[in-house]
Amino acid sequence: MDVGENFGPQERILWPASVLAGIAMCGAVYEMTRKVSSRCFKGYSRLSHMQKVEWNNRGFSTFHAVVAAAISFYLVVISDLFTEDVNNGIIIDRKSWLSDAMFGVSIGYFLTDLAMILWYFPSLGGKEYLLHHGLSMYAIGLALLSGKAHMYILMVLFTEVTTPFVNLRWYLDVAGQKTCSLYLYNGVALFVGWLVARIILFVYLFTHMYFHYDQLSNYLYRALHQ
């Protein structure tokens, strides 16, 4: 993997700036969630300290998920960045400043969330969360540094679309609203979202990788022999 050819003047500014933006985003949304919840939700004051921490943590988790899913959907589905057109070059080599920025913001998010998990360990998550965040940052970082396989990493980031439903389920549970209709509707939405984004999407992803195996194998060969 030759990082030098992918680390131009734009990347020297964009990469660190986007990572810092991701960290700043998490801090800002954490504080916003805390202030809005304390003023607008009566039950917030009755939560324990750790419940408040997790409540606020899930606030920036939800925000990142919405941003990541929206940008991933735009780049993969709406834009022509990854359309099957030989004039655009091979799929695995295609990228844009927006995909670079999204990867940087996501790394900033995972770093912030990982720091909180370690600080409050294991209250916000056990070893499986450490493994998940570590592998996520490795995969995103590899795509960012190499400039390769952005489409596939964006597809994986789109699976974050289910996170707001998971977090809303937790919010309603902690608030004692498991019997309300919103809890039921959210459960249905979570099931449908999981089916589409976590199962059907991965079937498509692996099918796409299979039909572009020649591009992937060449990239992996170059990466292993440099």
Please, could you describe this protein's structure?
This protein has 226 residues and is mainly α. Helices cover 75% and strands 0% of the residues. It is built from 8 helices and no strands. The chain has helices at 9-40, 49-78, 97-119, 127-146, 150-158, 163-174, 181-211, 213-224. Helix 2 (49-78) runs antiparallel to helix 6 (163-174), helix 3 (97-119) runs antiparallel to helix 4 (127-146) and helix 5 (150-158) packs antiparallel against helix 7. The longest helix is centred in the first third of the chain and has 32 residues, at 9-40. The termini are close together. The model has no long low-confidence stretch (mean pLDDT 93).
Reported for the largest beta sheet, the result is: none
Structural class: mainly alpha
The quaternary organization reads as: single chain
What's the tally of helices?
8
Name the helicity range: over 70%
Shape: globular
Average predicted local confidence, pLDDT? 93
**Alpha carbon gap, first and last residue:** 6 Å
Q: What is the N-to-C order of secondary-structure elements (H for helix, E for strand)?
A: HHHHHHHH
Low-confidence spans: none
Percent of residues in β-strands = under 5%
Number of strands: 0
The radius of gyration over CA amounts to 19 Å
Subcellular location: Membrane
Domain TLC: 50-226
Membrane topology: Multi-pass membrane protein
InterPro entries: TLC-dom (IPR006634), TLCD (IPR050846)
